């Protein structure tokens, strides 16, 4: 029988080919076709066709999501990945939707988040089918199209098909995630500001990389503004436009769950105006309640830190419409806390002139490290990598594990590889991609044999 290592080498080019096919679909959520856009409909069709070609029985659940199934028995293993991606943004070294390989590394939007994980899981299942593995449980590879903007896809799956008995989502890091922070966020609307125009960000769960704002010439101290931006080492340009001045600030994108890794352009742009004595109630409000902090310090949210995690706080999008400035808030709170612990602080943002449109907020996810499922997945990671030291983690990211019972995030990134998720030039080393397949083969066998 073909070993899993021989299989991965044999299928190396096909593995890359299939990932490249999925990457070629610009599956950013949109309203050009229900429910999540034509590109998401197309990539779901293509992914389900791949599953059929490799021996899985497929089902499309109204283009919210779909799955391929193999095996037998009453109990169900779920591998839950997503095909939608965040917007590509500007500054890529190559076409983000045409995957390329350079020096053993794959580049393209979705190679790490999460089309690579979906493809690795599919090839793990393909190996089990091709080698005649006898399943004791049913196994489903479930793929959704709305992970980045709401989880409606998996909510629809659960409504139609129910939960799973055990499983994982290949949408975080190895050796796995035993706990995920709670989430609280939404959109704030501030009525009235002397800022003529402001726009920044691509998604609420991404640290704002670029922000442009316009104010009246002479309404601020230019030297103070420049000194502040220079002092925090943030790139910017100032230009005149008639009687107005346009400020452009360049930051660094990162996932909202790890705002420390980014540089928030909109926060620094507004703080620069504050330091430059731009007299405006909205700028004062932003400085007083949010500022440039990433742990919610001005709201006291940093004090919720527990033994596993701290609070993260991100404003990802801002824009002015008429007399109203709208901006997003994405806050993740520690795994041993509850929504009731953060609601009062978050509601304090709603003062005069401010309204708050709450998003979908959720409690943390927490599994005991000695549970059977955690042990089964940890063993798969250790057996393939030989790494006996790394431990499962608690993270700030919100994965599908929060939306479907009895799942954790397991892979697909390895320590030291951030993949530039949600940033330009998202990448995946080929050797890591192949190792994902090997780990998932063992993980699926372990879950299948688990009592």
Q: How would you characterize this protein structure?
A:
- By secondary structure, this protein is of the alpha+beta class.
- The chain folds into two domains: 4-181 and 365-449, Aminopeptidase (3-Layer(aba) Sandwich); 182-358, Alpha-Beta Plaits, CATH 3.30.70.360.
- It contains eleven helices and 23 strands.
- Strands 10, 11, 12, 13, 14, 15, 16, 17 and 18 form a nine-stranded antiparallel beta sheet that branches.
- A hairpin with a 2-residue loop joins strand 13 (235-241) and strand 14.
- Helix 1 (4-10) packs across helix 11.
- It is elongated, with a radius of gyration of 23 Å.
- The protein starts with a helix and ends with a helix.
What is the CATH C-level name of the largest domain? Alpha Beta
Whole-number total of structural domains? 2
Instruction: Outline the low-pLDDT stretches.
Output: none
What is the name of the CATH superfamily of the largest domain?
Answer: Zn peptidases
How many helices in DSSP terms? 11
* Second rung of CATH, namely the architecture of the largest domain: 3-Layer(aba) Sandwich
Which fold name is given in CATH as the topology of the largest domain? Aminopeptidase
Count of DSSP E strands?
Answer: 23
């Amino acid at each position: 029988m073909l070993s899993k290592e021989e299989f991965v080498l044999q299928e190396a080019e096909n593995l890359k080919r299939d990932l490249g096919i999925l990457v070629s679909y610009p599956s950013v959520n949109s309203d050009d076709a229900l429910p999540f856009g034509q590109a998401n409909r197309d990539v779901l069709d293509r992914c389900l066709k791949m599953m059929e070609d490799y021996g899985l029985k497929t089902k499309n659940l109204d283009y919210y999501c779909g799955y391929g199934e193999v095996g037998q028995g009453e109990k169900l293993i779920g591998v839950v990945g997503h095909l939608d991606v965040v917007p590509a943004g500007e500054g890529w070294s190559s076409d983000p939707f045409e995957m390329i390989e350079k020096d053993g590394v794959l580049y393209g939007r979705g190679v790490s988040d999460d089309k690579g994980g979906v493809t690795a899981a599919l090839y793990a299942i393909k190996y089990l089918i091709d080698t005649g593995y006898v399943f004791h449980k049913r196994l489903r590879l479930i793929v959704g199209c709305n992970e980045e903007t709401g989880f409606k896809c998996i909510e629809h799956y659960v409504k139609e098909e129910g939960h799973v008995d055990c499983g994982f989502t290949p949408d975080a890091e190895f050796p796995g995630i035993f706990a995920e922070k709670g989430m609280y966020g939404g959109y704030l609307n501030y009525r009235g500001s002397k800022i003529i125009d402001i726009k920044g960000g691509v998604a609420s769960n991404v640290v704002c990389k670029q922000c442009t704002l316009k104010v009246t010439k002479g309404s601020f101290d230019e030297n103070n503004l420049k000194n502040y931006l220079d002092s925090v080492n943030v790139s910017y340009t100032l230009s005149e436009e008639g009687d107005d001045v346009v400020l452009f600030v360049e930051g660094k994108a990162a996932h909202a769950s790890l705002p420390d890794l980014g540089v928030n352009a909109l926060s620094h742009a507004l703080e620069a105006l504050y330091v430059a004595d731009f007299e405006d109630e909205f700028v004062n409000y932003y400085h007083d309640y949010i500022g440039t902090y990433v742990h919610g310090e001005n709201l006291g949210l940093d004090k919720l830190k527990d033994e596993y995690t701290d609070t993260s706080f991100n404003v990802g999008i801002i824009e002015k419409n008429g007399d109203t400035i709208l901006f997003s808030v994405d806050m993740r709170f520690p795994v041993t806390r509850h929504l009731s612990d953060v609601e009062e602080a978050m509601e304090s943002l709603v003062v005069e002139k401010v309204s708050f449109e709450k998003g979908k907020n959720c409690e943390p996810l927490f599994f005991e490290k000695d549970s059977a499922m955690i042990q089964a997945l940890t063993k798969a990671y250790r057996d393939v990598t030989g790494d006996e030291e790394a431990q499962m983690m608690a993270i700030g990211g919100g994965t599908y594990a929060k939306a479907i019972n009895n799942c954790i995030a397991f892979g697909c990134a390895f320590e030291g590889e951030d993949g530039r998720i949600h940033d330009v030039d998202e990448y995946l080393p080929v050797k890591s991609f192949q190792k994902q397949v090997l780990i998932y083969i063992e993980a699926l066998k372990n879950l299948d044999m688990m009592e």
